[in-house]
Every structure is written in structure tokens, then in C-alpha cells.
Specification:
Elements lengths: L8 H20 L11 E3 L6 H21 L4 H27 L2 E4 L4 E6 L3 E6 L3 E9 L8 E3 L6 E14 L5 E9 L4 H12 L6
Parallel strand pairs: 6-8
Antiparallel strand pairs: 1-2, 2-3, 3-4, 5-7, 7-8
Helix pairs in contact: 1-3, 2-3
Length: about 200
């Protein structure tokens, strides 16, 4: 099991970078990561697309400005340029990770998989869902037993559980959650699909 101490940091860093590069490859190939063949994917990255594009543009502008300022120090210029370019790659990779890792509803397996990029992946058994509703929230105060996965500073779907599920953070911290708030590009369709799956109907 992945550790949480200082010795685990290199492993976590390498894992993080490999997942980003894998996400970029999947995005370029127009494929999704680990989406069940019998499941239905629900995207959530549309709400952050403009923000991430703006962030990447700012990084590019900053790279050009630093190139001009450091033109008389070629050694420093090359190092800063590499760091700036890699920063842009990371920003694009984070967005790609959200695109290729959608939420997945799999009635055959009886699970709703809620994800956010490479950092969160929670599998919720359908029988543990007490209610699911479309609920737009733009503020999220930390609360025990709640997991808020905001995209573009908002969540649009709230899943309340009859029994808790485990959430393990990227750094290995484990906690039990009874409420999961997430975002979906089409929250109404996600809510309806989960309700149909809980009722035993097939998801089209």
C-alpha cells in the first residue's frame, strides 16, 4: 500500500508525472481512462476549460517575457525556458486528466465512479446511495464526512449515502464520507441516469 511518509514522496511525484503524461496521450488519442465497457461516462471538464486555457496562455506570455529579460544570460535562460515549458505541459496535462477521466456509471457492476482528474477516484456502490440530486453550489465549507469536488469553483450534483464509503487522498490519507458533491457538464442527465440505475433500468 502506498505510504504517506517522506520516503513515499518520490514515488508520489513520479506517479503524478506519469499519470499526467498518460492523460496527454489519451487526450490526443481521443480515448478515456478505465471507462467500463458497459458503463456510461459523464464529463465534468467543460466548466474549467476556459480557465485552464487562460492559465496556459499566461504561462506562455510569462515564458516569452523571461526569454527577453534573460537573453544576455543564456545558461539561466535555457534553465528557465525548460521550467516554463514544463509548467505549460503540466497545466495542459491537468486539464487533459479531467477530460479523459470522467465520472462513470456502471449499472452492471452496481457502481457510480466519481473522479476529478488524477487526484480523486471514489467508487460508490449504488445500493449505498440514499439520494442523488441536482444542486448548484458555489461555496464549499469543509465538513466532516463530506467530499466536495468543485470544478470551476462549483458543484452541481450532490450524492447522499446511506452508508459511508472510503476516500483515499492522493497522499494516502483515508477518511469516510457520507456526502459527495461533484460537478457534471450535464448534471440533470447524470442524476436521471443514477436514479434509473438504482431502479434497475438500463442506462442508454
Amino acid at each position: 500500500m502506498r505510504g504517506t511518509g517522506p520516503a513515499a514522496f518520490p514515488y508520489l511525484l513520479v506517479s503524478h508525472e506519469l499519470r499526467l503524461w498518460a492523460s496527454l496521450w489519451l487526450w490526443a488519442a481521443r480515448r478515456t481512462h478505465d471507462a467500463a465497457a458497459g458503463g456510461t461516462a459523464f464529463g465534468y471538464a467543460r466548466g474549467q476549460g476556459a480557465m485552464m486555457a487562460g492559465f496556459a496562455f499566461v504561462c506562455v506570455v510569462e515564458s516569452v517575457m523571461m526569454s527577453v529579460l534573460l537573453r544576455d544570460w543564456p545558461a539561466v535562460h535555457h534553465v528557465v525556458l525548460v521550467l516554463d515549458v514544463y509548467t505549460v505541459v503540466i497545466v495542459v496535462g491537468l486539464h487533459a486528466a479531467s477530460v479523459v477521466r470522467p465520472h462513470v456509471l456502471d449499472p452492471a457492476a452496481g457502481t457510480l465512479r466519481i473522479r476529478r482528474g488524477i487526484h480523486v477516484d471514489v467508487r460508490i456502490p449504488l445500493e449505498r446511495i440514499a439520494s442523488v440530486l441536482r444542486e448548484l453550489r458555489t461555496t464549499h465549507e469543509p465538513a466532516d464526512g463530506e467530499l466536495a469536488l468543485a470544478v470551476g469553483s462549483q458543484t452541481s450534483v450532490t450524492v447522499e449515502l446511506a452508508a459511508p464509503v472510503a476516500h483515499v487522498s492522493f497522499f494516502g490519507r483515508r477518511r469516510e464520507v457520507r456526502v459527495v458533491r461533484c460537478h457534471a457538464d450535464d448534471p440533470g442527465e447524470l442524476v436521471r441516469a443514477v436514479e434509473r440505475a438504482r431502479a434497475g433500468d438500463a442506462v442508454p
